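Table 4 source record.
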Amino acid sequence: MHPIDFIESLVAVDSHIVKAQISVYRYHPESLFDDRTTYSIAVEQLRAKYETLSVQLGENEDIAFHSLITIGDKRREFKRHLALVDFVTADITRAEATAEILIAELSSPPCALVYSGRSYHLYLGVQLTPLSWTSFMGRLLLLNPRNGPAVIDARWVGHRLMGGYSALRWSAKHSPYLPEIVREW
């Protein structure tokens, strides 16, 4: 299963989520430049937009899902973040153990662990305010042990804090491996 399946399952049980964001980004190694075109999409159109964009990708382009979502009703809308994590480890045992810590801390939201081809991603079905998202990102850094190999990708955290939202790859153009859900909670 692809991560879009998990996002669609979240939306199916929470009618307050009305929009999601994805982007087409161009990777520039060792650069602070965040080169992307962002799309805010009604959640019922998310899969169709992803499929359209995926066949139009150019060289060195990929599609990413963003943490930013819009919740609301016909009267008011609010921005929230879904909790997303980029692990630096390819060790599923370490990724699962860290995921279990976050799941317990966030009161057991629905979650999906995704293998990205080199490491793991975690999608947590909890909605964070912009302030709580910033705290969450700081918390991720504190999950890396002082003495030992990192489990969280600290560079990803830095880039995403600078960008103001989290983003995880959904396509397989730049990386030959399409992300795949390996476990759900």
